[in-house]
Specification:
six-stranded antiparallel sheet; about 150 residues; alpha+beta
Length: about 150
């Protein structure tokens, strides 16, 4: 299955209005990339037309979730239920500027280390080749299934 054919909601536990990724655009066991176009009137956007810092952090975390969701569904051939993950650490966070409404973000995560259900990743959020934000993030994946999967 092509990445472009996968609905992002099949990979992440978050649901509107908290969606911060539009699509998983690249995956290998070490690197994952997503895109997100900052929508008008989004919950993380300010009245001056910019996305808050918390939105950037959530975008990075949801890129991690999309990677883990894709890995669970394709590589490990697990059931279709999405597991819940938690941010365990953010280190060396740099935010160069807040993205504007309508701007497309490309977020890249590189897995530095996996240990049991914990991933340490290096991240970068870019727009048109400009680095907007970067950090190291530790994500803990639980065995708890998301209620978003229930009908």
């Amino acid at each position: 299955m092509q990445l472009s054919e996968i609905d992002i909601l099949d990979l992440i536990p978050q649901r509107p209005p908290l969606i911060m990724v539009d699509a998983l655009t690249y995956y290998d066991p070490v690197v994952a990339k997503t895109v997100f176009t900052v929508p008008e009137n989004h919950i993380f956007c300010t009245s001056d037309g910019r996305m808050e810092e918390a939105g950037l952090i959530e975008n990075i975390a949801q890129t991690c979730a999309a990677r883990m969701g894709y890995e669970e569904k394709t590589e490990k051939k697990q059931d279709s239920e999405i597991k819940i993950g938690y941010i365990g650490m953010i280190k060396s966070m740099e935010i160069n500027r807040n993205p504007r409404i309508g701007e497309q973000l490309e977020t890249t995560i590189v897995v530095v280390e996996n240990f049991f259900h914990t991933s340490l990743v290096e991240t970068k959020v870019e727009s048109a080749g400009e680095t907007i934000a970067s950090c190291e993030m530790k994500i803990f994946l639980t065995d708890i299934k998301s209620k978003a999967n229930e009908s």
